[in-house]
Amino acid sequence: MTAARVRTRPELRTQRRQRSHGCWNHLIAAPLWPKHGVNLGTLLRTCDAVGACLAVPRRPWVPEALDRGNTLRHRQCVHWVDGRVDRWLTRQREGGSAVVGVELTDESIRLADLPVARKRTVMVLGHESTGIPPEGLELLDMAVEIPMVGTGHSLNVAVAGSLVLYKLAGLC
């Protein structure tokens, strides 16, 4: 067996997307009930990796959290959700987006069974302690669960969102 060859940075750059993605084009990560700012920054980095946008509620502490977490140091695709989150989700559905929630419900499908997003898709993440509230659950087209064998009840928003984004993008 031969040793694996590590690709150089210039090789990686030429294999990746040549230009920015179009806003609201395909995937939108929406942590609409955030608890910890550090997770928003990490999720923003994953959005860049998969070509997704990030939609976040306009709260006083969110811009600083995103700035701290933006380790790429270039402008990211961030959209602000003003007003009631349920109204924003309703507008997304009415605009033709699929709304996929990361939540444990009776109807949740396993992450491994989640199909690649074939149309504009909003991936909704809830509060880390309480999940997606009832008014958000009512607006989901599908819920996905991430199976766990450990003793924890859930993953943090950044990890859960990253796993689901990679699956929706067809990158894993």
What does this structure look like?
The chain has 172 residues and is α/β, with parallel strands linked by helices. It contains six helices and seven strands; from the N terminus they run H-E-H-E-H-E-H-E-E-E-H-E-H. Strand 1, helix 2 and strand 2 form a beta-alpha-beta unit. The model has no long low-confidence stretch (mean pLDDT 87). GO terms for molecular function: RNA binding; RNA methyltransferase activity.
Question: Which labels suit this protein?
Answer:
TrmH family RNA methyltransferase, Alpha/beta_knot_MTases, 172 residues, alpha/beta, 7 strands, methyltransferase, SpoU_MeTrfase, transferase, Alpha/beta knot
